[in-house]
Amino acid sequence: MSDAEQINLFDWQDPPAIPADHAVTPTPTLEEVSTNAHIPIPTGFYPDLDQLAAHCRQCQRCDLAPSRTHVVVSRGNPSASILIIGEGPGQQEDETGFPFVGRAGQLLDKILASVKLDSQKDVYICNIVKCRPPGNRVPTLEEAEACKPYLLEQIRLVNPKIILLTGATAVRGVTGDKRGITKIRGQWLTWQNYLCMPILHPAYLLRNPSPEPGKPKWQMWQDIQAVKAKLDELSRPS
Ligand code: SF4
Questions:
Q1: Smallest CA separation from ligand 1 atom 6, residue
Q2: Which of 19-28, 100-109, 193-202 shows the lowest mean pLDDT across its residues?
Q3: To the nearest whole percent, how much of the chain has pLDDT over 70?
Q4: φ, ψ for residue 189 (rounded to 5)?
Q5: Mutate to test the pocket of ligand 1, among 52, 58, 61, 74 (most ligand atoms within 8 A of CB)
Q6: Which residue's CA lies nearest to atom 4 of ligand 1?
Q7: 225-233: which pairs have CB atoms within 8 A and are 24 or more residues apart?
Q8: Is 65 in the pocket of ligand 1 (CB under 6 A)?
Q9: Which ligand 1 atom sits closest to the C-alpha of 56?
Q10: Residue identifier of the C-alpha nearest atom 3 of ligand 1
Q11: The domain 27-235 belongs to what CATH superfamily?
Q12: Residue-wise pLDDT tens digits, 149-193
């Protein structure tokens, strides 16, 4: 190598600046995540559902925290093929710490049992918000957005074959679809590669108990049979 070539090896050029959109975002701390709704929770933040649940119990990300008795994270089987998402905890859920345990929850268990699905073994149940909205009002957009990262992590960790979205709040909270639930119930849709079906909320059936064809209870019977048929199809060895 000539002297000139060797000297050229010492040439120095500043490395190109890293564009802002490629800058590494530091992983937030648990403290930051649980107190500030503007701090995003990165995908994969929680290694398992137990750590997610423990963290949710300390959460103060939204205005629902001060009035809750319990944070309501889930019930059922974390390895289930079906994940059911409701709106938010009611009084009995707030008191017990488990979702869908009041009258609507008992009806949901019966609906599942009608197609031989067990609510403890075959499904994992959670809600759009994990703390009870006062007076059972619909969660605000801000509350739903603050809580959504936990739900996304639950979906990732359970990784179900099918997601059931019970009622308009669940549909809107997960997919952003604002259409009325009576328009889209029973229709399969794909969200983030997950097969989802919007269904009526069991509380709506309690208020509309007629089993006549075309009525909400009859519609639920059609929908849950379609869900079971799809689950059987997906579970069949190929
Ligand atoms: S509803 Fe969700 S975001 Fe709000 S305090 Fe409860 S766990 Fe945290």
A1: 131
A2: 19-28
A3: 90
A4: -140, 155
A5: 61
A6: 62
A7: 225/115, 226/186, 226/197, 227/82, 227/115, 227/162, 227/164, 227/197, 227/199, 228/115, 228/116, 228/117, 230/162, 230/188, 230/195, 231/81, 231/82, 231/161, 231/162
A8: yes
A9: 7
A10: 147
A11: Uracil-DNA glycosylase-like domain (3.40.470.10)
A12: 999 999 999 999 999 999 999 999 999 999 999 999 999 999 999
| Predicted TM-score of the model (pTM) | 0.89
**Cα–Cα dist 139/88, whole Å:** 7
User: Could you identify the atom of ligand 1 that is nearest to the CA of residue 139?
Assistant: 1
Query: What confidence tier does 25 reach under pLDDT thresholds 50, 70, 90?
Result: confident
Residue whose structure tokens are 């909320």 = 201
C-alpha 176/C-alpha 165 separation (Å) is 12
Side chain identity, residue 140: T
Ligand 1 atom at minimal distance to the Cα of residue 143: 4
